[in-house]
Amino acid sequence: MKLPSRKLAEWITLVISAVVFLSVVFFLVLDLSETPSEYLEITATPLFSQIKKQGKLYILPLEVRNSGIQTLTAVKVRVSFGAKDQSAQEDIEIQYLPRQSAQKVYLNFERDPRLLDLKAKPVYYYFD
């Protein structure tokens, strides 16, 4: 009894399946080979170019970026701002910041934030 020969579509399906399977295995091995560090690069950047005026308030987006390979929880960012006559600071807490991602936080000001000496810096974080 002679076995039927494989059709071209079956060979194409086999090759595509093998490529997908090997790609998944490669990325899993690559992901497991990265050694996590306790010290991550977290940045907080005010996006002055995206300021919007809404009524009497100025809305300033603040981008908080986690460039590390670990997910973070309870990221605290301290925003200090002020003019020559007065200054203030506020703390912002982001509950969940996935690895290699960014999240925007929107800050409301009664004065134009471009005129303030505004600084934002991460203070602490926890690993998930």
Keyphrases for this structure?
128 residues, alpha+beta, Immunoglobulin-like, four-stranded antiparallel β-sheet, three-stranded antiparallel β-sheet, 1 helix, elongated
- Helix-strand string: HEEEEEEE
* Low-pLDDT residue intervals, each spanning 5 or more residues: none
CATH architecture of the domain at 42-127: Sandwich
Q: What percentage of the residues does DSSP assign to strands (E)?
A: over 45%
Structural class: alpha+beta
Q: Tell me the major beta sheet.
A: 4 strands, antiparallel
**How does the overall form come out from the CA principal axes?**
elongated
Average pLDDT score: 88
Distance between the termini: 61 Å
Measured as a percent range, the helix fraction is 10-25%
| Tally of helical segments | 1
CATH third-tier fold name of the domain at 42-127: Immunoglobulin-like
The CATH class of the domain at 42-127, by name, is: Mainly Beta
- Global Rg: 25 Å
CATH superfamily of the domain at 42-127: Lipoprotein YajI-like
Total count of strands: 7
Overview of the molecule:
The structure is a single chain. By secondary structure, the protein is of the alpha+beta class. The protein has a domain at 42-127: Immunoglobulin-like, CATH 2.60.40.1620. The protein has one helix at residues 8-33; strands spanning 42-46, 52-54, 57-66, 72-82, 87-97, 101-109, 119-127. The strands form two sheets. Strands 1, 2, 3 and 6 form a four-stranded antiparallel sheet that branches. Strands 5-4-7 form a three-stranded antiparallel sheet, with no helix packed on it. A hairpin with a 4-residue loop joins strand 4 and strand 5. The longest helix has 26 residues, at 8-33. It is elongated. The termini are far apart. The mean pLDDT is 88.
